[in-house]
Write a structure and sequence with these properties.
heterodimer; A: 701 residues; mainly alpha; Cytochrome C Oxidase, Chain A; two-stranded antiparallel sheet; 2 strands; 1% strand; globular; B: 214 residues; Four Helix Bundle (Hemerythrin (Met), subunit A); Cyt_c_oxidase_su3_a-hlx (chain B); transmembrane helix (chain B); Cyt_c_oxidase-like_su3 (chain B)
């Protein structure tokens, strides 16, 4: 390579293309893996081209730019976060299916190379945590939390855009790594010394490093934004103990993000110094200490577990109350339990490495701390069950996910207590038992939570219900698929099969592996059901219209406005007198009222900052990965100039006239009056247009 | 105009630290969130430094036969840097008081410029220190201990650099827009960062320099 090309392209060469090695090496294994990798890269390229063609064909570039990409509206940013999450979810599920397929036929070999398998489990884990789970829950909190506290937007709308831009950049980087390979093979945790330059000189670890760093920065900013919003922008009268439980869990998650993300920034930052500037933080020689990395990573990693699980706890709390037609049981205890979990989550990180040589006393202390978390979690489970007790339960789609969650999550919790015992952990650590355990927490916990939240709040966001038939099919496929795919892994773990094995030599594993493989196919079917559900719902959107805004006889503020809500959310900021504020209003016959007077509303103005920071962030990360220093410096300068220039701007808000607010609001009220109120038993039929009968006429509180 | 930010109007939700007071009512009420948000960011940043301090301490033994603190550090230079930074905190305090109590910009600008000069002087001495460490073979690639040093101390320096750039940007904003609400809250937030960096430096001076030379 000449000097000029290496100046421009760094170390990026033709061999980064996924089919390159196939051209040199004609063995069957190389060709199979090359074809799979090329197929994946082709899907990425085709997907991008299809998106560009579609937007151009519809002539929607301007609409996309001014109504979505530069919009500071928390609702639109939330939806865009969820779109990223769904795209990445699809990719990571397909990767999981490939891994299951490999292991189903992995006795003495299989069809994937060890390198390819390593990339698969690394991207699967990295994507599921940082580019599926985090954007999904960030998106849902973004959409719902300001509505629940009676706010018009987050405290820092432009910072919210920047968070979105950074997450999008990280996700894009992992997608680019399919086309310009390879990705890291170091697992989502990226332990050194394996990820150090001396053992792993290629671009793979650097892709992983910068994708994760972008996501971490995004989540830190998001956490600050959520916490400040909840502390400062609640409607008058909404004291902390009148906040909906979902908002409470959003607050705890935000606090965990603020304090839990910096350790990962430090860990990846120091690893980057090792790899780029020849530092010796975690190397095996010259006084480096790799245990520091493990401690730093899990000082992030364990709070992260609760960042992921607390929002679903809040979501399920809303869903159990709504679909049992009852006030949540033990509101204050649930709040206290949430806070206890948030605090305890910082005291248990060492249980991720019981076997790494510290003394038995230290292990015992962390084992006990770990088991303690079971107590507030158990309190929550009982509270949810007691909420359902003597309620009029409607088995809607969100409720199916919620009940599946309770059953399976308790099982996962039990295996967690088993793993928390250091002596047992010595036997099963690093085995498939662990994989089964944390998937048992994350799929029924996090993913079911996100999917039930999608079914629950989708009508609020888009003005029509998601179709239920395909919703049930998806939910049952998820529950059954999960059980088939992961319960065998408990057995395999106890039989001694290590995690991340590309092949094995023990015939007894095979039946369990095949069962797990079938489970993976059922999960793939669940993904298809979700897509069909979305398609069918959009097709039938007129029949399932819920413009009036309250399809589930909801309890909290967000159900008291139109679906979809106007960009300013509330024509007049509501005043709050109790928990379940909207249910109280309906109870008193005070729902759907016109205010005495309307005021002008000041909203944040559109801004391109999120797009700019997203693009420069991606350019810097890509440049760092491939050693294109000009790109890193250029993008860095653009970022600096953009941030400084933004400081000089003064028109950061725009005003919506009172008369326009009045017109919109009165149009909606008129529609609500024209909507026929329905009984809860009819809520899954096309007669549900978003207005329930008043509580007096038949519903239990 | 309903801003939707009703709680900020209540007196008890004021952010900690220097508030501008009733003379600046509008800035106080509409920008409360900005300053509070910055405090929260500082907490997050403090975790960063806290972890790097902890990592540094665990790496003290990792000199791998290379030069250690006694060979590399000069107490005089570190002491000069400490004094410069402490004085700059005082001058920023004077700038904050000028912002709160004075109508005219002149005094505020002078104090900010003095602070900027002190910040740059600090950076000069710090770089000079690094240079002399490099000359004595104290480069980060030499040992784990030196890696830990160069991941902690220059990060503080980078923060100071960022704060200086921000200060210049704020002076520029003041020249263009005058002393309006965004500039005022900008100065309030920069003040928090500046004092924060001072506190972090006291940690570095005590733990890294005094601890290393004792």
């Amino acid at each position: 390579m000449s000097d000029a090309t290496s100046l421009i392209f760094g170390r990026l060469g033709w061999d980064a293309l996924p089919f390159w090695s196939m051209l040199d090496d004609h063995s069957a294994m190389s060709i199979i893996n090359g074809v799979i990798a090329t197929g994946a890269a082709g899907m990425v390229v085709l997907g991008i081209l299809a998106a560009i063609v579609l937007v151009t064909w519809l002539g929607k570039w301007k609409y996309l730019w001014s109504k979505w990409l530069t919009s500071p509206d928390h609702k639109k940013i939330g939806i865009m976060f969820i779109v990223i999450a769904l795209v990445m979810l699809s990719r990571a599920i397909i990767e999981a299916v490939f891994m299951r397929a490999q292991q189903a036929v992995g006795l003495d070999g299989g069809f994937l190379t060890a390198e390819h398998f390593g990339e698969l489990f690394t991207t699967h884990g990295t994507i599921m945590i940082f580019f599926m789970a985090m954007p999904f829950l960030t998106g849902i909190i973004n959409y719902v939390m300001p509505l629940q506290i009676g706010a018009r937007d987050l405290s820092f709308p432009v910072m919210n855009q920047i968070s979105l831009g950074l997450t999008a950049a990280g996700a894009a980087l992992t997608m680019i790594s399919l086309v310009l390979a390879p990705f890291s093979t170091g697992g989502w945790t990226g332990y050194p010394p394996f990820t150090e330059l001396s053992y792993n000189p290629g671009a793979g670890v650097d892709y992983w490093l910068w994708a994760v760093t972008l996501s971490t920065l995004s989540s830190t900013l998001t956490g600050i934004n959520f916490a400040v919003t909840i502390f400062k922008k609640r409607a008058p009268g909404m004291t902390l103990f009148r906040m909906p439980l979902f908002t409470w869990t959003a607050l705890c998650t935000a606090i965990l993000m603020i304090f839990g993300m910096p350790p990962l920034t430090v860990a990846t930052g120091l690893l980057a110094l090792d790899r780029y500037l020849d530092f010796h933080m975690f190397t095996t020689d010259l006084g480096g200490n790799m245990m520091n990395y493990v401690n730093l990573l899990w000082a992030f990693g364990h709070p992260e577990v609760y960042i992921l699980i607390l929002p679903p706890f809040g979501i399920f709390s809303e869903i159990f109350a709504t679909f049992s037609g009852k006030r949540i049981y033990g509101y204050k205890i649930l709040v206290i339990a949430t806070m206890c979990i948030a605090i305890l989550s910082f005291t248990v990180w060492l249980h991720h490495f019981f076997t790494m040589g510290q003394s038995a006393h230290i292990n015992a202390a962390f084992g006990i701390a770990t088991m303690l978390i079971g107590i507030p979690t158990g309190v929550k489970v009982y509270d949810w069950m007691l909420t359902m007790y003597r309620g009029r339960i409607r088995l809607s789609v969100p409720m199916v996910y919620a009940i599946g969650f309770i059953m399976l999550f308790v099982l996962g919790g039990m295996t967690g207590i088993i793993l928390a015992t250091p002596s047992v952990d010595y036997q099963v650590h690093n085995s498939l038992f662990l994989i089964a355990h944390f998937h048992n927490m994350l799929i029924p916990g996090l993913l079911f939570g996100m999917l039930s939240a999608t079914n629950f709040w989708f009508p609020k966001a888009f003005g029509f219900r998601l179709e239920e038939r395909w919703g049930y099919r998806a939910a049952f496929c998820w529950i059954i698929g999960f059980m088939l795919a992961f319960f065998p892994l408990y057995v395999l773990g106890l039989m001694g099969m290590p995690r991340r094995s590309v092949a094995y030599f023990e015939p007894q594993y095979v039946p369990w592996m095949i069962t797990a493989g079938i489970g993976a196919l059922v999960i793939l079917a669940a993904l298809l059901c979700l897509l069909i559900q979305l398609w069918v719902s959009i097709r039938d959107r007129h029949a399932n219209n819920v413009f009036a805004g309250d399809p589930w006889d909801g309890r909290t503020l967000e159900w008291g406005i139109s679906s979809p809500p106007p960009e300013y959310n509330f024509p007049v900021i509501p005043e709050i007198y109790s928990i379940d504020a909207f249910m109280t209003e309906k109870d008193r016959g005070q729902g759907w009222q016109a205010p005495d007077r309307y005021d002008d509303i000041e909203m944040p103005a559109n801004s391109a900052m999120g797009v700019i920071i997203g693009i420069t962030g991606l350019a810097m990360a890509f440049g760092l990965t491939w050693y294109m220093w000009w790109l890193v410096i250029g993008a860095g300068l653009v970022t600096l100039v953009a941030v400084i220039a933004r400081g000089f701007g003064r028109t950061t808000t725009r005003t919506i006239a009172a008369c326009e607010v009045q017109r919109t609001h009165e149009h909606w009220l008129e529609q609500v009056r024209l909507t026929h109120p329905i009984d809860r038993s009819l809520e899954q039929t096309t007669s549900n247009h978003g207005r329930p009968v008043p509580p007096i006429e038949g519903a239990v509180q | 105009m309903s801003s939707g930010n009703t709680r900020a109007l209540e007196g008890n939700s004021r952010h900690p630290g220097l508030n501008l007071g009733p003379a600046h009512a509008q800035e106080e009420d509409t920008r409360e969130e900005m300053v509070f948000g910055f405090w929260v960011f500082m907490m997050s940043d403090l975790i960063l430094f806290g972890l790097l301090f902890a990592t540094y301490v665990t790496m003290l033994g990792g000199t791998a036969g290379g030069p250690g603190p006694k060979e590399l550090f000069e107490l005089k230079s570190a002491f000069i840097q400490t004094m410069i930074l402490l004085v700059s905190s005082v001058t920023f305090g004077m700038a904050s008081l000028a912002l709160k109590y004075r109508e005219d910009k002149a005094r505020l600008v002078v104090w900010l410029l003095v602070t900027l000069a002190l910040g740059l002087a600090f950076l000069f001495f710090e770089l000079k220190d690094f240079h002399s460490m490099f000359d004595k073979g104290g480069v980060p690639s030499r040992s784990g201990y030196l890696s830990a040093f160069f991941s902690l101390v220059p990060l503080h320096g980078l923060h100071v650099t960022g704060a200086c750039i921000w200060l210049v940007a704020l002076l520029g904003q003041m020249a263009v827009h005058g002393l309006d609400a965004p500039v005022k809250t900008g100065i309030l937030r920069l003040a928090i960062l500046w004092h924060f960096l001072d506190i972090v430096w006291i940690g570095i001076f005590s733990l890294v320099y005094l601890g290393g030379l004792s």
